[in-house]
Design a protein that fits this description.
Blueprint: H1 2-18, E1 38-43, H2 49-64, E2 68-73, H3 78-90, E3 95-98, H4 106-114, E4 119-122, E5 134-138, H5 140-154, E6 166-170, H6 178-196, E7 200-202, H7 213-219, H8 226-238, E8 248-250, H9 254-265, E9 280-281, H10 288-295, E10 302-304, H11 307-322, E11 333-334, E12 351-355, E13 358-360, H12 366-370, H13 376-382
Parallel strand pairs: 1-2, 1-3, 3-4, 4-5, 5-12, 6-7, 6-8, 8-9
Antiparallel strand pairs: 10-13, 11-12
The chain binds beta-D-glucopyranose (BGC).
Length: about 375
């Protein structure tokens, strides 16, 4: 036992001294030291592009600090992700960084706690679990507020008269992703007053907030699947939105925004080739394809969450936890006051470290480009 402890501490001190680049090369195949501490990284899915990037970023950041990384993607299947987490534990991982698929992950997190392995919830809060202490994410309510504000501005809602209201339809993210509720409630904090005063009219289901569960389920998009959103948009265009022209669609992220735009373009009303005009469509994640679409005047906005920085901050947090230090994460603020509830899992309130999102429209697509968020080739197309 004592020997193991010494080796572990030695490995940690060694890693720290190893500094940034030196240790990375030892962690790939072959030259890896058996003393290197393993950090398990569980990502939820690959069909939303950001997670592929998050997984790669986390691996780089973990290795840069001299740890060994094992990264797994759950393919939007919680059973699969739980097995991946089990295998991290079997391989003696000393810490887990988890972006969960849904709250079915709680059982695996309980196993980690039993093994005294700390867990950092990454981007998505792990609901209904009291078995972990840390969460790092962006201010997700603000993400939604940005989406609402973009619609407010683009439609000039402050000066619209209720005699000729603007028309919107609403989409939300996965009903099993707690973030989806924050995004929606943030957007509604801006839009609801206009709906109440009749300046903005909703076609299709209308949950005034995510707590209206029945209607929220109707606008939610299972597992954030683009095909689900596209089909729902097509159905809306042939039913509730058939006899109106939509001025805006609240779309929760870029993957779904593009699917919604694709559906709209099949309708002459919204296709410039037939003299039509797309509604204002929101998004988030600053995915390359969406930022290009914004530059070209199709998607209206996105929200840039610098996930390169999130990954870095998450691993700094992990490193401090493993070293028994009091976490102090540069670029992230420990949520306090009203915001502390962002860390409320329903079983306990974990420490939530928040980073700031940035609103992106045609005016400032340079922001994620200048932050180095894209490949050279992509950046060249956005300049
Ligand atoms: C993330 C978003 C992402 C969505 C779908 C959310 O939990 O915060 O950035 O677009 O999941 O993967």
């Amino acid at each position: 036992m004592a020997l193991v402890a010494i080796l572990t501490v030695g490995a940690l001190i060694g890693c720290n001294k190893g500094g940034s680049s030196g240790s990375t090369s030892t962690s790939g195949s072959g030259g890896q030291s058996s003393q290197q501490v393993l950090i398990g990284v569980a990502m939820p899915e690959t069909h939303v592009q950001r997670w592929q990037k998050d997984g790669a970023n986390l691996k780089t950041e973990v290795e840069r600090r001299g740890y060994r990384a094992d990264v797994a993607f759950g393919d939007a299947d919680q059973n699969k992700q739980n097995q991946q987490i089990q295998s991290f534990l079997t391989n003696s991982a000393k810490l887990l960084i988890v972006a969960n698929v849904n709250d079915g992950v709680a059982a695996a997190i309980a196993d980690a706690a039993r093994d005294k392995v700390p867990v950092v919830a990454y981007d998505r809060l792990i609901m209904n679990s009291g078995d972990y202490d840390y969460y790092i994410t962006f201010n997700n309510f603000k993400v939604g507020q940005f989406q609402g504000q973009a619609i407010e501005q683009a439609l000039g809602l402050k000066t619209v008269n209720s005699d000729s209201p603007k028309i919107i339809t609403l989409f939300a993210g996965s009903p099993t992703d707690n973030n989806a509720k924050f995004f929606f409630d943030g957007a509604m904090s801006i839009l609801k007053p206009y709906i109440d005063s009749g300046v903005l009219k909703v076609v299709g289901p209308y949950p005034p907030s995510s707590t209206d569960n029945a209607n929220f389920q109707r606008i939610a998009t299972e597992n954030w699947q683009a095909t689900v959103a596209k089909t729902r948009m097509e159905n809306l265009l042939n039913a509730d939105a058939k006899d109106v022209t939509l001025d805006a669609v609240l779309a929760p992220n870029d993957t779904l925004a593009r699917a919604i735009i694709e559906a709209c373009l099949t309708d002459a009303k919204y296709n410039s080739a037939s003299g039509g005009k797309l509604p204002i469509v929101t998004g988030q994640d600053a995915e390359f394809a969406s930022v290009l679409s914004i530059k070209q005047g199709q998607q209206y906005m996105t929200v840039f969450k610098d996930t390169n920085r999130l990954a870095e901050a998450a691993v700094i947090l992990a490193d401090q936890i493993l070293k028994g230090q009091v976490p102090d994460v540069p670029g992230a603020t420990l949520a306090s006051g009203d915001l502390a509830s962002i860390g409320n899992t329903g079983k306990k309130t974990v420490k939530a470290y928040l980073m700031e999102p940035i609103i992106i429209t045609q005016q400032n697509v340079n922001v994620p480009v200048d932050a180095g968020f894209y490949s050279e080739q992509e950046a060249a197309q956005l300049r």
